[in-house]
């Protein structure tokens, strides 16, 4: 596969349409647009996977089934490390396939209806993303952050505070009106992914980060 797109979340019917599963929801929208397959269990990866095609490029869609905190385990074996020689010397460095991996996940510090692409950053406390970083051994890969926070009248995010409050919030289900907003975001995400594959992450970042 030329590209890998992973949508983070928790497996199981009880977690469907929860805020923490926004990555999986967006991934499914991408599947419906670019793949003729349904997601199928992949025992080797412990994930649901589907093959897609964007333009001429092959894409593997991956929804880890390890629960959020262990999401990276499903990606460790398919995001490879390769060694190359530096000039004519014997010293070697490790190069990751970071540009070929896009991770989609929920961000409760962004309002519903917004998305952002970032890369070369820490997990920001997101356990699923932290698991991916540890598994693929780099922060360099791009990630598409999907807003899940309630918006204030000003449009800013109403960010929950406190561990218990945050956990209750992210595991709560989207309201009907919020799901409508998420569907709008999904349409844009489908376009962003196409631009990422065909034109590169800089152009995709400009599109995703434009209000």
Termini Cα gap: 32 Å
H/E series, N to C? EHEEEEEEEHEEHHH
* Count of folded domains: 1
Broad structural category: alpha/beta
The number of distinct β-strands equals 10
How big a fraction of the residues is strand? 25-35%
Q: Give the helix tally.
A: 5
CATH homologous superfamily (4th level) name: Peptidyl-tRNA hydrolase
Q: Which percent bin holds the helix content?
A: 25-40%
User: Looking at CATH, which topology would you report?
Assistant: Rossmann fold
Q: Whole-number radius of gyration?
A: 17 Å
CATH architecture, please?
3-Layer(aba) Sandwich
- Note the main sheet: 8 strands, mixed
SSE layout and pairing:
Blueprint: E1 3-7, H1 22-34, E2 40-42, E3 47-54, E4 57-64, E5 81-85, E6 92-96, E7 101-111, E8 115-118, H2 127-136, E9 143-151, E10 157-158, H3 163-170, H4 176-199, H5 201-209
Parallel strand pairs: 1-4, 1-7, 7-9
Antiparallel strand pairs: 2-3, 3-4, 5-6, 8-9, 9-10
Helix pairs in contact: 1-4, 4-5
Your description of this structure?
- The longest helix has 24 residues, at 176-199.
- The protein is 30% helix and 28% strand.
- By secondary structure, the protein is an alpha/beta fold.
- It has a single domain (3-83, 94-209), classed as Peptidyl-tRNA hydrolase (Rossmann fold, 3-Layer(aba) Sandwich).
- It is built from five helices and ten strands.
- The strands form two sheets. Strands 1, 2, 3, 4, 7, 8, 9 and 10 form an eight-stranded mixed beta sheet that branches. A two-stranded antiparallel sheet has the order 5-6.
Can you describe this structure in just a few lines?
The protein has 211 residues and is an alpha/beta fold. The chain is built from 5 helices and 10 strands; from the N terminus they run βαβββββββαββααα.
């Amino acid at each position: 596969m030329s590209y890998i797109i992973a949508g983070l979340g928790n497996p199981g019917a009880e977690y469907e349409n929860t805020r923490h599963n926004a990555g999986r929801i967006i991934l499914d929208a991408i599947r419906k647009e670019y793949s003729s397959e349904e997601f199928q269990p992949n025992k080797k990866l412990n994930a649901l996977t589907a093959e897609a095609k964007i333009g001429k490029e092959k894409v593997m869609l991956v929804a880890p089934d390890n629960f959020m905190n262990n999401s990276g385990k499903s990606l460790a074996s398919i995001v490879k490390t390769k060694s190359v020689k530096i000039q004519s010397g014997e010293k070697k460095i490790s190069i990751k396939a970071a540009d070929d991996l896009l991770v989609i996940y929920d961000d409760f510090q962004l309002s519903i209806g917004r998305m952002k692409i970032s890369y070369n950053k820490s997990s920001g406390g997101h356990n699923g993303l932290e698991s991916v970083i540890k598994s693929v051994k780099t922060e360099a890969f791009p990630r598409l952050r999907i807003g899940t926070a309630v918006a204030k009248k000003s449009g800013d995010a109403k960010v929950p505070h406190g561990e218990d409050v945050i956990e209750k919030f992210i595991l709560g289900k989207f309201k009907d009106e919020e799901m409508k907003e998420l569907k709008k975001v999904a349409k844009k995400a489908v376009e962003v992914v196409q631009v990422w594959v065909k034109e590169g992450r800089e152009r995709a970042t400009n599109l995703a980060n434009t209000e």
